[in-house]
Design goal:
Layout: E1 5-9, H1 14-29, E2 33-38, E3 53-56, H2 67-91, E4 95-98, H3 105-113, E5 118-122, H4 129-134, E6 140-143, H5 153-158, E7 160-161, H6 168-171, E8 188-192, H7 200-211, H8 215-218, E9 221-226, H9 232-241, E10 245-249, H10 255-261, E11 264-267, H11 271-280, E12 284-286, H12 296-307, E13 310-312, H13 320-331, H14 334-346, H15 352-363
Parallel strand pairs: 1-2, 1-4, 2-3, 4-5, 5-6, 6-7, 8-9, 8-11, 9-10, 11-12, 12-13
């Protein structure tokens, strides 16, 4: 078994690459060699990806109904498939695992054409377009959520519900007890994440909502906020004006450390975010991205909302006043935060990476 090679194909966003990284690390511990296939965007998230090689395969997508764009994208994907076939003949992978997103398509198509074992993993509660196309063709489908919207009944029945693989440093937070804010004077730590797209609303609205909080709460508040680069100066000024300690950056690489000390998380409802909040047992306010394909973030958030682990607000209803009210209601109620933490942990699937690795070894060529 030692020395077998797996190709992990994933779209170039954190939502696709972080679960792929967790699987790669689990396979590496079992003696596997890993090659990553992604696009240029993936480089921003793949600096710690445990692979011996990175394949940059040509890939593209187009809006439905855009005939010219679809033809152009099809030609680019075809070029990516040719690149993948050539690479696979050299590498001879025992299996190819796809994590969705259009950059994963060329690698999966090449593997199917060469009759190699294939697995796809769907991170969201709604099956994405690429995975809907590939699901009937691959050797196995794994998914994160017990609900799998937009999948046919047959596909849903055949799916392996294993959860979302989370990075080891995030999984380790399952063993870190949640400690709510202490007393009337202790610090209150708010972590604000935005995801790789659609973060403008939170970047601009959150500092204004914090400014609207009572002075006694602002005096205790410590904010760590991922903010779009063009919004950073404005956010810093707003926090400084209302005397709130704040650290502002476009991206936090040490997310596990920050998540482990946060009392409350405010963010989008991407699949990795939801799974990591559950694993870490962190209370949250989630604002699903309205323009997300098939409204999948709203379905993702429902897992934590139904468990009582998250408050969910739609973009259309979110205002400075409503966000300030939601923040105050939670930050001034340590008991509720503690109950939300326990509820988040109750829906965590901590063995997702190992269970997916088991499936890989079951289906891979010797």
């Amino acid at each position: 078994m030692a020395g077998r090679l797996a190709v992990v194909a994933a779209g170039g966003t954190g939502g696709h690459l972080f679960p792929a990284q967790a699987l790669a690390e689990a396979l590496r511990r079992r003696g596997w060699r890993i090659v990553l296939a992604t696009d240029e965007r993936g480089a921003a998230f793949a600096d710690k990806f445990p692979c011996e090689e990175r394949l940059a395969l040509a890939a593209a997508t187009a809006k439905s109904g855009d005939i010219v764009g679809m033809i152009r994208a099809g030609l680019i994907v075809a070029r990516g498939v040719i690149q993948a076939r050539k690479a696979f003949k050299r590498l001879d992978p025992a299996i190819v695992i796809g994590f969705g997103g259009y950059p994963a398509l060329p690698g999966l198509l090449a593997a199917l054409g060469q009759k190699r074992p294939t697995i796809i993993h769907e991170q969201n509660a709604v099956m994405g377009r690429v995975n809907r196309y590939l699901a009937p063709k691959v050797s196995a489908l794994a998914c994160a959520f017990p609900t799998l919207e937009r999948a046919t009944p047959c596909i849903r029945l055949a799916a392996h519900v294993i959860g979302n693989p989370v990075r080891p440093e995030i999984r380790a937070l399952a063993n870190v007890p949640y400690e709510p804010p202490l007393g009337p004077d202790g610090p209150v730590r708010l972590l604000v994440t935005g995801g790789s797209q659609g973060a403008r609303l939170l970047s601009e609205l959150t500092p204004q909502a914090v400014r609207a909080l009572p002075e006694r709460l602002r005096a205790r508040l410590q904010v760590q906020q991922q903010t779009r680069p063009e919004s950073m100066d404005s956010a810093r000024r707003t926090y400084a004006d209302c005397l709130v300690k704040a650290e502002i950056a476009p991206f936090f690489r040490d997310m596990a450390g920050r998540l482990g000390t946060a009392h409350l998380v405010l963010g989008r409802a991407g699949a990795s975010t939801v799974s990591e909040l559950a694993a870490a047992g962190r209370p949250s306010i989630l604002v699903p991205l309205k323009i997300a394909a098939d409204d999948h973030q709203r379905f993702n958030a429902k897992l934590l909302e139904d468990a009582g682990a998250a408050a969910v607000a739609s973009e259309d209803e979110l205002t400075v006043e409503s966000l300030a009210g939601a923040l105050r209601a939670l930050l001034e109620d340590p008991g509720r935060l503690e109950r939300m933490s326990a509820s988040a942990r109750s829906v965590a699937q901590l063995d997702a990476a190992e269970n997916l690795a088991d499936l890989v070894e079951e289906l891979a060529r010797p």
